[in-house]
Design goal:
Distance between the termini of chain A: 53 Å
Largest interface: A-B, 53 and 53 residues
Number of helices of chain A: 13
Number of domains of chain A: 2
CATH class of the largest domain in chain A: Alpha Beta
Shape of chain A: globular
Strand order of the largest sheet of chain A: 5-2-1-9-20
Oligomer: homodimer
CATH topology of the largest domain in chain A: FAD/NAD(P)-binding domain
Chain lengths: ~450, ~450
């Protein structure tokens, strides 16, 4: 056993929250008046507003606008302590978390580690596909897209050029649909101006969905309209197709078709990101932790899980709740309340998911929304849904300054048909692996 | 010889500009109506507004606000071509530039490669000191500062903690003075709120200047006031001291004093960044290229140099012009005009530097300015100078959107005493080398 990380001993019981996503932040906030020491551990020093990551990836928003440093969020919360660290494992017998900065003792452990991309055990796909789970991923995607065009300028061979200009998105859920919409928007309004030397009729955007419907889980109207919008914007939607393999150049579909691209975005599924040290009996399929209706991990008295990592298996929800922001926020909030009840000897309140519906945007002026308000359902597609989508995301993003920045960026983009600064960050892209691959491909 | 890079043959003579700093961009702009093909080569896809880099480094501005992609700047210039590439060397006999994307032929070669940090041949300093020449450097500095505090939280040993909390800036020119001022501002208004677990009386900011005056080259009043302001803000200014050595931990001064710090900023001098293939007789001390009064590199008929890399040695300027934005902008503009005159068979106009003065800001409400307007000199220190400084920088920054962003950030910071998002970008800082050094130091 190593040394203990240095955290003031305040004489209070200590709640350790692993992960500062929607669930972890909401939980920490809801404990602001608790007579406890709240320690949040994250490997980034900021919270990320994940629903808008795809806009950072497509240069629509600046990275800084959708993140909020934890220390800023909790500036006024006296019982809050942040530690920038990576968690290695937990020891539930000794009640310690082993981290990159040392051991951290806990009285209550709150696991809010979220989800990670699920490549369904395909190592080749994992190696070549691009996922979008973090700001770093989003910036990497932005770099890749911009660099691909710079590189395309140098190629005479049509297949080689197309391999850089064409994009394949796997997964027709909200992320895949929104990314496809944003790319088609850029193809129409932004890229042709920046790269007048390229012919953007050559740029293809493919969206591959294994089932018959886009936005599975939303209404039939929403699915149908999303498909209609995407096709209107020139996205090639492949329904009922699965990707069999991808070697970084050729996408092979189960139906035999091949698509050539150097850029495949993986939005086809996520899996829980559990931590070592939790008893295997509590880890369900999909790597999620089985919790009771109070979000307590089955088999423990003082270990809880919330958000994407938690699977609250009930008759209504045999798979647990959807891995989305809403259940995470609601579970985080309730768990804070329940922890205080627990310590006061009061009965715990079971979690009751209040589903407010779902929505997705597909380029300028177009979105689909299935809303549930006061137990009534409202369906909307088109301009009004798009407006609602913007409003909901604006009010949800953390921090007034971020709201302002996002709004200014959106208004700017709307009226100028231009997006934010399209800069390639970092030096490595000058010697991007793509270049070497191209050379070897050409030689073959 | 390798292959040629792919650039359309427009049938026009080709001007190749290497480097998109102030000089290169201004030159390309001034050639917008020329019957020439203008090719700009840069290793970034954006222009950087260098005078505000220190604000990015100190989290005062977002990186995106002070850069502008070349393709956006030249969106409407038909004869302009951008290529993202690294220049390896030039062959002036064959009239080609050898780059990472292939050979590029030129009729006129314009060298605008700027300057790089001068460590005066001290490899240990070069290894351990942090320079600030690019957006990547600035972000690296921001990361380092924020990470240092996260790390300090874990240390009991006072010397170890101070090595992370203290900063040494070498060089009392505008960059050093402005960086010291910005750091003292953060120490006063921002860091103590974010890191309430740390005692910021422990944080020392040292500014080391080899000569007796700060802001050498400015008026005696400006130098004196800059010193007064910095000392008022608690910066420890060391005049007439030189750094003898720095091993990443101990700064040894020539007078024998030692300062412990893991973060030393190098702002003590720059040197030209010449390219291979230029005849050595034209490379002067300080690695600058000797040019005549038309910015033509001595010994060539069709090779020119502008900005920091150019040394126009005259009786008035035995060292060439100061390595600043103003001479670069003015030389770039005049060279564009002269190139058109040259091709029209007209006499070239000699460069006549119009010195508008200099200024530096030292934290909120404080700046020093020596202005020259219509041949008259105006000196100002304090709030008015600070206001002028802001105005001049706002109007100088490229792009309306950037102006707007910078202004919003400044106004926000002014009234809230808060700065932009303080995020640590990238993953590497979790396993920052600092950590390893600390461990080894502790063991010693």
């Amino acid at each position: 056993m190593g040394n203990y990380a240095k955290i003031a001993n305040t004489g209070k019981q200590r709640v350790v929250i692993i992960g500062g996503g929607f669930a972890g932040v909401e939980l920490a906030k809801s404990l602001q008046d608790a007579d406890l020491q709240v320690v949040l551990i994250d490997k980034q020093n900021y919270h990320t507003f994940q629903p808008l990551l795809y806009q950072v990836a497509t240069a629509g928003l600046e990275a800084d606008s959708i993140i909020h440093p934890f220390r800023k969020i909790f500036l006024k919360q006296k019982n809050f302590y942040f530690r920038l660290a990576e968690v290695e494992r937990v020891d539930t017998a000794l009640q310690v978390v082993e981290t990159s900065i040392g051991l951290i003792k806990y009285d209550y452990l709150m696991i809010a580690t979220g989800a990670t991309s699920n490549f369904f055990g395909d190592p080749q796909m994992e190696k070549h596909a691009i996922a979008m789970k973090s700001i770093d991923d989003a910036l990497e995607i932005r770099n890749t897209i911009l660099y691909n065009f710079e590189k395309s300028l140098q190629l005479d061979d049509e297949e080689q050029r197309n391999s850089l200009m064409d994009y394949v998105i796997v997964g027709g859920g909200p992320t895949g649909v929104e990314l496809a919409g944003a790319l088609s928007e850029l193809r129409k309004h932004v890229f042709p101006k920046d790269y007048s030397e390229l012919d953007f009729r050559e740029m293809d955007i493919h969206l591959i969905q294994s089932g018959p419907l886009l936005l599975k889980g939303m209404s039939a109207e929403a699915s149908a309209k999303a498909l209609e919008y995407l096709e209107r914007f020139g996205v090639k939607v492949w329904l009922n197709k699965r990707v069999k393999s991808y070697d970084g150049y050729t996408v092979l579909l189960d139906s035999g078709e091949k698509i050539i691209t150097r850029t495949l975005f993986w939005a086809a599924g996520v899996t829980g990101a559990p931590i070592a040290g939790i008893r295997p009996e509590s880890v369900l399929r999909g790597n999620r932790l089985q919790v009771d209706v109070f979000n307590r991990v089955v088999g423990y008295s003082n270990v809880f899980a919330i958000g994407d990592i938690a699977a609250m298996v009930t008759e209504e929800n045999p798979q647990g709740h959807p891995m989305l922001a809403q259940p995470a926020l609601q579970q985080g909030k309730l768990l804070g309340k329940n922890l205080m009840r627990l310590r006061a000897g009061e009965a715990l309140l079971p979690f009751d998911y209040n589903d407010n519906g779902a929505m997705a945007t597909i380029g300028r002026n177009h979105a689909v929304a299935d809303l549930k308000l006061f137990k009534k359902e409202y369906k909307s597609q088109g301009f009004f849904a798009w407006f609602i989508w913007m409003f909901v995301h604006l009010v949800s993003i953390v921090g007034f300054r971020n709201k302002l920045e996002v709004m200014v960026d959106w208004v700017w983009a709307y009226f100028t048909y231009d997006t934010g600064n399209r800069l390639i960050v970092g030096k490595k892209h000058l010697n991007h692996p793509v270049e070497k691959t191209i050379i070897s491909k050409t030689v073959e």
